[in-house]
Amino acid sequence: MDIKQKNSSINDSVGIVETKYYIYPDKIKLESGIEFGPVTIAYETYGQLNKEANNAILLLHALSGDAHVAGYNSPEDKKPGWWDSMVGPNKAFDTNKYFIVCSNILGGCKGTTGPSSVNPETGKPYALGFPVITIEDMVKVQKLLIDHLGVNSLLSVAGGSMGGMQAMEWVIHYPEFVKSAIVIASTSKLSAQGIAFNAVGRTAIISDLNWNNGNYYESEPPANGLSIARMIGHITYLSEESMHKKFGRKLQDKTSPDYNFNVDFQVESYLQHQGQSFVDRFDANSYLYITKAMDYFDLPSKYGSLALAFRQIKSKFLVVSFSSDWLFPPDQSKDVVKALMNVDKDVAYCAIESNCGHDAFLIEKDHQTRIINSFLKDIFKG
Amino acid sequence: MDIKQKNSSINDSVGIVETKYYIYPDKIKLESGIEFGPVTIAYETYGQLNKEANNAILLLHALSGDAHVAGYNSPEDKKPGWWDSMVGPNKAFDTNKYFIVCSNILGGCKGTTGPSSVNPETGKPYALGFPVITIEDMVKVQKLLIDHLGVNSLLSVAGGSMGGMQAMEWVIHYPEFVKSAIVIASTSKLSAQGIAFNAVGRTAIISDLNWNNGNYYESEPPANGLSIARMIGHITYLSEESMHKKFGRKLQDKTSPDYNFNVDFQVESYLQHQGQSFVDRFDANSYLYITKAMDYFDLPSKYGSLALAFRQIKSKFLVVSFSSDWLFPPDQSKDVVKALMNVDKDVAYCAIESNCGHDAFLIEKDHQTRIINSFLKDIFKG
């Protein structure tokens, strides 16, 4: 990367940020009934908590995200955080105004306790000794962090995809604590098709001989399995149209097909690259735990109905969907909106036209910036 | 299965049929330029060729099909052929009227020469010594069989999915020979998304250590890889709606989740079963070769444009699509229809409303029967 360009993008961002760690020393009770702890929580913060302590926003990441939502951890970083386009000075989540917090989820592999973390009782990684967790458990752990930071109310909880699931559990569990929720490209329950894609990804990992029943931390990881899981995921994150626009049937570095089983098409090369590079930055067991938590997510079943789930909440909602998102399609966002309206809650819904598929929440900066800016301004005033 | 019910379904079908084999002793020139042969072709026939020899219909199977399109190969068979609902006395392809032929494709593993066949020059299975083939190559081999059977013109060539691709190559290559084509749930070129799903399936097979660069015929086959490829395939064959109706979020043999990595949901159990049972009946190398042939299928690019591809054809067309088919969506059928109309060809198009996804061509019996019956009657008269 060109140094000048790099510095300019650092200047354009929140700059250099440090990942911090909070260790909650006790045990928490998980939704499964298991008591688990201690828990280390990796987090980053951006902007300043104001005197009134009423400008804090918690950002919630999706399957493969982490605490590093914006800026650079070091000047050598090639890329900024995963939602840098949305978090920073004068951006959708404006760090000049708001105190932004983002933490790695429970079960993750980016600093928060997960299956790859060392179990203090054995001195070895938990592996499958780590308990199966839920979205609610992730939220409980986030609340411990927020309390530790001295934040006594949240202006908003916001996230896309699985981040939106967490946002909904937040306002249900802590109705007095959270002023608003921004739920983007998400759903109130994972569909059969969503479970199916997750199940195939998990099967790929578990079938990899290197997985070894989860005990691979001192040997080769199940790279092939995790890579396949990620390739499947990537197909679901793009729309058919965006794949067509991005790759079409273009061949990779050749003018005619090879008539063998090497990579022929650009789309194959892209997926293989995505799969292989994911292996360097993600833990296969975390992939199992997190997708399972998504599979289990089902607010209507857990609370009797979606309306019942939302009956006690006090937060204002902004729900955003993208027309070409076929993983969490607009209809699933509309179900959330309808349920909120049925129990007379304050909800704004924005159905954005986009051909970027599910990934639109990471890509469609301009439209999201306008509506989130305006939504937050209203809440912050009120 | 109940014996009485079984006999009644045999009576309702074409009954007991025998798979036959034709050995073409010479070499054929493949699209890649390679000369390949001899070729054994497995086929079945139903009904009788009439005196005028003008009632023959060639049925063309999809990725995992075979020559056994209808009836039972033995009274012990648990299931009839793959399109039994459509082929038989008084069915869509009426065996009282028409002489029906169906053969296993080149590269397959159900009797026609493919990678699992023994190479007569080495006495060992071809494995990856088998040449990479195309849809056109499959069609060339089918023509050898049709000539061998003494059929000198085809009333129709018909197939769903990859079968539709073959139908299109048939009428392009043998315009004088084929009176009509029935192209169901198909496309004139595989989309980037279609290539992507195939590529992930192939990666799963190739990553399986048992695959051993294709040489597994004297050892354990790459069962895990093939099973994963099939699971991915099955997701694409169903629609989100049909998955929802069929499985929803129903748990498999339990009332609450297990909080472990066993199968929790019915949809997981279904996919695992589909994957595992596929391994017993299909060859992993065939899966590689056939999906590659689909990837390469691109009539517009091969002939300059779709209109140019169809310019010389003399066959009437029936094109059928299904509303919830997201693998080969209706728009891709419409592209075929438009191109045919642009070059003034005779085409009927039927867009069937169905929530069965791509698999609808195997399921939607009634609607397809009506339109195919009527289409064929017209052609047979004319």
CATH homologous superfamily identity of the largest domain in chain A: Alpha/Beta hydrolase fold, catalytic domain
Largest interface: A-B, 57 and 57 residues
Instruction: Indicate the mean pLDDT of chain A.
Output: 96
CATH fold call of the largest domain in chain A: Rossmann fold
What number of structural domains do the residues of chain A give? 2
Helix content of chain A: 25-40%
What is the correct CATH architecture of the largest domain in chain A?
A: 3-Layer(aba) Sandwich
Return residue spans of chain A where pLDDT drops below 50 for at least 5 consecutive residues: 1-5
Strand content of chain A: 15-25%
**Highest-level CATH class of the largest domain in chain A:** Alpha Beta
Describe the fold and architecture:
The structure is a homodimer of 382-residue chains. With 382 residues, chain A is an alpha/beta fold. Chain A folds into two domains: 3-189 and 297-381, 3-Layer(aba) Sandwich (Rossmann fold), CATH 3.40.50.1820; 197-290, Rna Polymerase Sigma Factor, Chain: A (Orthogonal Bundle), CATH 1.10.1740. The first copy, chain A, contains 13 helices and 14 strands. Chain A has helices at 3-12, 135-148, 162-173, 192-207, 223-237, 240-246, 266-281, 284-296, 299-303, 306-310, 330-342, 360-363, 365-381, and strands at residues 20-24, 28-29, 35-36, 39-46, 56-60, 87-88, 93-94, 99-103, 118-119, 124-125, 156-160, 180-184, 316-322, 347-352. An eight-stranded mixed β-sheet of chain A has the order 1-4-8-5-11-12-13-14, sandwiched between helices. The longest helix of chain A is centred in the C-terminal third of the chain and has 17 residues, at 365-381. Chain A is globular and about 65 Å long. Chains A and B meet through helix 4, helix 5, helix 6, helix 7 and helix 8 of A and helix 4, helix 5, helix 6, helix 7 and helix 8 of B.
